[in-house]
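Following up on my earlier thread - several people asked me to post the actual chain instead of describing it. Fair enough. Here it is, all 278 residues.
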Amino acid sequence: MSVSIKQALQNARQQFDVGSADLDAELLLCHVLEKNRSYLRAWPEKEISSERLDQFSQLIDRRKHGEPVAYILGNQEFWSLLLKVTPATLIPRPETELLVEQALMKLQGIANPIIVDLGTGSGAIALAIASERPDALVVATDYSLDALVVASGNAKQLGLTNVFFVNASWLDCFAINAFDLVVSNPPYIEVGDPDLASDVRRYEPGSALVSDDSGLADIKIIARQSSALLGSGSWLMLEHGWMQASEVKNVLQNNDFVNGEILKDLAGHDRVTIAQKK
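Reply from S.P.:
Thanks for posting it. Predicted structure:
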């Protein structure tokens, strides 16, 4: 029996118990058909071959079992950049673009800035900044060699040559006064947090998500190391949980950072705290 694009999408939506069912179905079918979403809307009655329909069914089954669409497709868009992602990296989220926006604002007027992105994962933050500031030197670190392979591959695919990748735990291997700005989306979820979505817990790397000390352990390490290494006037920018803002701001203040600001994401949640080395 032949199945049209419209019918295939309807069948897929009915099988997904998620709020993003429409988008998920469209993205998966686009991947199978090697077309964009406009094509699906322009040709809803076009029939799908049995071979492609079988491929679509396999992807639907993976999504039904909770596997994130980004891992199924092998990519995720961030800052208009299409990035490869794997289970070795977190899936970049739209709210993390706030870090990029703030970094670019604070770097205005600084020629040839030097930036470090700690725990780069897929390279999302580092590559977004590098794409906007070709005069910048961006260093991207990660403790995971597998993540660095993904990130460096993304840089090559995007043709960005001003990003350098380092296998390191936070700022362990760097010299004093090396950077104008430190930016990071570190692990900040508390161990055993019941609100952590099951698909995130099952599929995304726990080492990039969960941290001890009520989710603040890595943030405290980064703040302490940044305080020791950064020169006066340099910036530190951290993403964190929406209920951690006041604690993060206090951590920065206790490590000689001033001019602290707490910034909200598009959902209105406290998401990023920035401060300047005294």
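The chain is about 40% helix and 20% strand. That should answer part of your original question.
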